[in-house]
Amino acid sequence: MEPDTMRRLFAGELGPERDFFIYSRHFNPTVLNLGRQMAALEGTEAAYCTASGMSAIAAVLLQLVGAGGHVVASKCLYGGTHALLSRFLPRACGIRATFVDADDIHAVRAAVHEGDTKVIYVETMANPTLAVADVPRLAAIAREKGVKLVVDNTFTPMVVSPARLGADVVVHSVSKFISGGADIIAGAICGPASLVNSMMDLQQGALMLLGPTMNAKVAFEISERLPHLSLRMKEHSERAMEYAVRMKKMGLKVVYPGLPDHPHHSRLAALANPGYGFGGMLCLDMGTVERANRLMHHLQNTTQFGLMAVSLGYYETLMSCSGSSTSSEMTPQEQAEAGIAPGLIRMSVGYSGTLEQRWAQFERALALLHQHQHQHPDADVGSGGGSLF
């Protein structure tokens, strides 16, 4: 209303905390509203939303680490994050990363170079191996060493609350479970208000100056979906658990943290919020890429069990062979070190249709695979991995 208001806005004397907004790349009231919902979801002081999960990750790392800084990261990360840390950031601004087994606390501690390392970076549940990070112990190391623990919680919203377990920053690809519709690309950064404000700083902010802030129309749509996220996550988890139990009984090599034989079963049981199960992601190790692809072909094209796609968190089951898709940015050696087997199918378990109807579709596809193997016993010879039957 007053000419001097604009000067005061740009000088930082007035801002969104008093309902003054400069421009939607800076703060936008609709995006800020979603940010408050995300902060409430993750139990952080503040949050702000971005145009994609990768932009949230990249902006946080640029803001916290800076040129020439060092990151200690888990060996097993989403392929895009791995490429960002191992290739793009070193070339673009000299940020270096040391990849370690996040489960080896001594290795994590040894990799932190005091004064040089700025961030420890992990995924709550690793993509695609479903290893579960020991967030409280990693947070203790971060505090001891004076660095920030950044946790990607894309696979486990509602299931785990990393900030309540000691993480400094929680990032999300909102495109996945939180959106739930596989129709939106979005991200979120949840953490201290000081971080969010620094990222929106007019002179120094990675979000403000690089510009990957969220579109207000997208923010409105997502805020309408958050109220039923808890119901969706419970159903994803229940279906995944039931499938995992049945698959294991059939003799399949299934990876699911809800199964007692998963190496981190008791850890996730202790860290998880009660009532949300063990998440909606499971993996099937089919031994070879050929066998994995043949099963996925039947699951999609013959029995309509699910869809081949690299996203997750949809109401339909989505599946992909991780080594040749979402982890393809990693070299074969990097994949092997991360524990990503060539025939590993990552499955995001949906909840459409009845459980029994979907299970019957899975069984039919498996029977067709079994039949093919009997008719062509030498089909997969030489490509590694033994028969599952």
Characterise this structure:
It comes from Ananas comosus (Pineapple). It holds the Pfam family Cys_Met_Meta_PP. Keywords: Pyridoxal phosphate. The modification N6-(pyridoxal phosphate)lysine is found at residue 176. Belongs to the trans-sulfuration enzymes family. The structure is a single chain. The chain is α/β, with parallel strands linked by helices. It folds into two domains: 3-226, Aspartate Aminotransferase, domain 2, CATH 3.40.640; 228-375, Alpha-Beta Complex (Aspartate Aminotransferase, domain 1). 41% of the residues lie in helices and 14% in strands. It has 14 helices and twelve strands. Strands 1-7-6-5-4-2-3 form a seven-stranded mixed beta sheet, with helices on both faces. Helix 4 links the parallel strand 2 and strand 3 (96-100). The protein is globular. The chain starts with a helix and ends in a 14-residue tail after the last helix.
CATH topology of the largest domain: Aspartate Aminotransferase, domain 2
**Gyration radius, in Å:** 22 Å
| Alpha-carbon distance between the two ends | 75 Å
Q: Tally the helices: what do you get?
A: 14
In one word, what is the shape? globular
Helix content: 40-55%
* Strand residue percentage: 5-15%
The side-by-side strand order for the widest beta sheet comes to: 1-7-6-5-4-2-3
Largest beta-sheet characterization: 7 strands, mixed
Order of helices and strands: HHEHEHEHEHEEEHHHHEHEHEEHEH
**Count of the domains:** 2
Q: Write out the CATH superfamily name of the largest domain.
A: Type I PLP-dependent aspartate aminotransferase-like (Major domain)
Q: How many strands?
A: 12
Structural class: alpha/beta
Poorly predicted runs are 381-389
Q: Would you identify the CATH architecture of the largest domain?
A: 3-Layer(aba) Sandwich
Mean model confidence by pLDDT: 93
| CATH C-level class of the largest domain | Alpha Beta
